[in-house]
Design a protein that fits this description.
Layout (H helix, E strand, L loop, with lengths): L1 H26 L5 H6 L7 H13 L3 H27 L7 H32 L2 H15 L1
Helix pairs in contact: 1-5, 4-5
Amino acid sequence: MKRSVVALFAIACAIIGAASANAQSAAKPGGGMLEHFCSGDSAKAPEGHLAETLASRLVLNDAQKAAFKDWQDTRRSARDNMKATVCADKSDAGTLAGRLALHQKFLQARLAAMEVENPKLLAFYDTLDAKQKAIVDGVHMRWRH
């Protein structure tokens, strides 16, 4: 019983500490995750470069290029909306409650962006042939590890 209480306390401390460390880093002016995300510098998101690299490996035909462009345009728009939502009113990241609220706002905005992006990504994926799908599936398998 004593061990499980100690283990539960240790887990709770680790969770609170991780949330605190991430949010404190996000709260640092000019150097945190949130400042980077909300700055103009993050307009060229790394996932856009990854998608362009992947598209070049796939050797897309005209119909696939159109579906890819539609997905990328939707992704950029969703990311812009996400940034507007998250960056419009930055909660007080100096407190645990503020950091948790900010993190929740970020996750909700990311979910909303995914709900808009995913149908376009699946529409693009459906245009690919079996060999191209194998390349895409292989990339995602490597990202998971």
